[in-house]
Amino acid sequence: MSNLKGRSAIVTGGARGVGAAVVAELVKEGMGVVIADLLEHDGAELARSLGPTTRYHHLDVTDQDEWVRVLNETEEEFGALSVLVNNAGIVDFGTVESESPSLFRHVLDVNLYGAWLGMHLSAARMRAAGGGVIVNISSTAGLTGYAGVSGYVASKWGLRGVTKAAALELGSANIRVCSVHPGPIHTPMAAGMDESLAAAQPLPPFGEPREVAAMVRFLVTEATFSTGAEFVVDGGATAGQVPVLNGK
After folding, report:
1. Spatial separation of the C-alpha atoms in residues 184 and 232, rounded to whole Å
2. Residue 69, pLDDT above cutoff 60
3. What 8-state DSSP symbol labels residue 129?
4. Neighbouring C-beta atoms of residue 10, cutoff 10 Å
5. Nearest Cα residue to 13 out of 51, 45, 50, 39
């Protein structure tokens, strides 16, 4: 899908952070892009700044009726859906012992069920249009465990798994499905995180949203023989840790 002009895309959680960077990349590729988010002010401002091929629409990713409305509005404004980026996500801090059942379930609902619902409702539209690309923004927490964020880890592992299932099911319809696994990225969600967490990585500083967005653009435009696979943007964190030698 190297030529995206005249095609439409939806980016959930697109009002700020990684989502906003992805929206900007897809607009540059000539797509009509819908910013689907709960953050009305941020989403509307971003749409205004990027011009007439961008719209903001309110979306609670756990609400099926809202999904149907946004899908209909996207196709009315920009044509058949070609790209879905499931980026909306939340994190709640708490151990297995301390996290409340309601918050654990809420994280799963937004991060996993919300993405599944988007795929569930978009697949038939992409199939009718002759194909498409779905990119699920998971995390390095979908590749390894982290203490203190069990709901987040569970949701991101689940999203990695459902990506593979969907890729197997939808490949015959020319629909590719891949997951992207960022490490620590400078976003509002990461505000307050201790940057020393990245000190043992080969590339210590936190990444930037544009670096994740560049990976998404590559998957949409160039990686035409890739599906069901993980693409990692983590400064080398999941490769291992750089040892501290001689106190340095």
Report:
1. 11
2. yes
3. H
4. 29
5. 39
Mean pLDDT, rounded, for 183-194: 72
* 39-52 residue pLDDT tens: 999 999 999 999 99
Enzyme catalytic residues: 152
Query: Which pLDDT tens digit goes with each residue over 196-237?
Result: 666 778 887 789 999 999 999 999 999 999 999 999 999 998
* CA count, 13 A, side-chain hemisphere, 44: 5
Cα dist from 90 to 85, 112, 155, 172, 198, whole Å:
16, 10, 10, 32, 21
pTM over 0.85: yes
- Is residue 176 within 8 Å of residue 126, measured between CB atoms? no
> 212, 215, 117: which is closest to 159 by C-alpha?
117
Give one DSSP letter per residue of 158-178, joined into a string: HHHHHHHHHHHHHGGGTEEEE
What is the mean pLDDT of the segment spanning 126-134?
97
* Count of residues in the chain: 248
Is the Cα dihedral 192, 203, 160, 24 positive or negative? positive
Distance, C-alpha 172 to centroid of its chain:
23
